[in-house]
Design goal:
The chain contains three helices and no strands. The protein is mainly α and 116 residues long. It folds into two domains: 30 residues; 80 residues. The chain is elongated.
């Protein structure tokens, strides 16, 4: 009698899981039709905005980084030995951040270029 109750509860549990899977499957069957989204003003404006921002970021990031690096070198020259290490770290961070910003904006510009 115990084995029948155990196997009936196991079948009942598996049936519940199966019904949950089937319901989830049918809930995700809705198709999204987005044929006119690319032609909308919002999509074109967003693409143009991202394109312009990435171009300006590729121009401004090295300029700002160069100004910060010059400032950090000036501050490092007036600092003592312990503070010079901090200014050296800040110079390295400025260089890495500049490279990261330029690479990110170039990558975004490249990706957006494929969709225009």
């Amino acid at each position: 009698m115990k084995t029948i109750k155990i196997s009936f509860s196991q079948v009942k549990h598996k049936a519940r899981i199966f019904l949950i899977i089937i319901c989830t499957f049918f809930m995700h069957l809705n198709n999204a039709y987005a044929s006119n989204v690319k032609k909308s003003k919002l999509a074109k404006g967003t693409e143009a905005l991202i394109n312009d921002v990435t171009i300006w970021l590729m121009i401004l990031a090295p300029i700002v980084a160069a100004l910060l690096i010059i400032y950090f070198f000036i501050r490092r020259s007036a600092a003592d030995e312990l503070d010079q290490k901090k200014w050296n770290n800040r110079i390295v961070v400025a260089i890495v951040s500049c490279v990261g910003a330029v690479l990110t904006s170039a990558t975004l510009n490249l990706i957006i270029g494929y969709y225009i």
